[in-house]
From TrEMBL:
Keyword Transferase: no
Gene Ontology MF, one: guanine deaminase activity
Stated family: Belongs to the metallo-dependent hydrolases superfamily. ATZ/TRZ family.
PANTHER family: GUANINE DEAMINASE
Source organism per UniProt: Psychroflexus maritimus
Reported function: Catalyzes the hydrolytic deamination of guanine, producing xanthine and ammonia.
Listed CDD domains: GDEase
InterPro entries (UniProt xref): Amidohydro-rel, Guanine_deaminase, Metal-dep_hydrolase_composite, Metal_Hydrolase, Metallo-dep_hydrolases
Gene: guaD
UniProt entry keywords in alphabetical sequence: Hydrolase, Metal-binding, Zinc
Protein name stated in the entry: Guanine deaminase
Lineage, opening ranks: Bacteria, Pseudomonadati, Bacteroidota, Flavobacteriia, Flavobacteriales
Enzyme class: hydrolase
Cofactor: Zn(2+)
Amino acid sequence: MRKAFHGNLLYFKADPNLDSDALVHLPNHVLMTKNGIIEAVKHFAEVTTAEKFELEWHDYQNQWIVPGFIDTHIHYPQTEMIAAYGEALLEWLEKYTFPTEMKFDDPNYAKEISSFFLNELLSNGTTTALVFGSVHKNSVDAFFEEAEKRNLRMICGKVMMDRNAPEALQDTPESSYKESKELIEKWHGKKRLSYAVTPRFAITSSPEQLQKAGRLLKEFPGIYLHTHLSENKNEIEFTQQLFPKAKNYLDVYKQANLLTKKSVFAHCIHLKDEEWNELAHKQCNIAFCPTSNLFLGSGLFNLEKAEKMGIDVGMGTDVGAGTSFNMFNTLNEAYKVTQLRKGMFSNESKKSLSPLKAFYLATLGGAKALSLDNKIGQLNPGMEADFNIIHPAVNSLQKLRMKSANTIEEQLFVLQILGYKENITATYILGEKYKLPHDFEK
Ligand code: GUN
Ligand code: ZN
């Protein structure tokens, strides 16, 4: 099936802070797809008469056509406990997170929440995510089944956790190895699904379990590693007590051979220089989760440092510590994190997060952090046709404000700060419009 989408194409071909030509803005262009893959991009004037007749035509003039958003860190079992009051990380885990995650031993419940979660992501224009399951193997089966039904490119893994958590949520080094392996064999590489070996964080895994995680990475090359790193000061202190021989937090993971090009570490707020160097050296990736970091009071991620070190960064919503599934909201809070750093640390440069860099991080930046930039994140021929149609002004305030936004950069900034899910007027997966179930309210 060949289709044509007529609108204003907008995407990034590089990091706009490193390449002044990175933004690709193509007004009055047509994105052509064939069987879910982008076939061509042309100016409307270059479309042939035959193409006008042969292709299924979709008119989105005056709207933007942008790549689907990519969320590089999120927990699907925490959907229902988003907005839990008053605690920092370790207390929040104990009081709210662990009791909620216990419910996922029920496969029917896991299916119900997986479905809700994916609809919520899609209603916010996020088409690919790196997702934590719960400790229960069936939670990941349920998630992949729902993702497969929707033809999504998704990455997920079963939490590995054998200590410092309620008994009902603990596995063992052996059972976590066995169950992860079974899930990898069943799901990794099936359609658009990939597996991430997912030890929760150093505190909840014994050294033996982390070794098993490393063994899985060795046995299944190409698999992801997904965990948390250096989010909260008390977390770091407890980790040092549990691993007294480790040189630093990252060293705990290094000792278990968990540092690869396909490793994604969420947060990385309080890293020492030696940890930054090691992450760069091993070409590891970071998920920047601003709504979560502000909500839990964890700290302010140093995005500029990551850029200087050449470390790939993607945006993470980190729901349920994160407070929104929405990428505009997440980029809005990311901007404020850079503003706060500017105000608080006088020895750093005076750069605020630009709207170009922000939307780069939510698309191609995320794709690079997940080693998927050959498939998603841009609107190039040969890539998978996952994209959003965005109306930059859908309410009175946005319309008023956009009147005086004269450049594409300023328009993107207004969207970053004032945008809602309502600005996403359609989301396409492999060239097919995603239809939310009739009872799902956007
Ligand atoms: N560290 C370990 N587990 C979690 C979690 O569920 N959320 C966040 N934000 N940090 C964690
Ligand atoms: Zn998290």
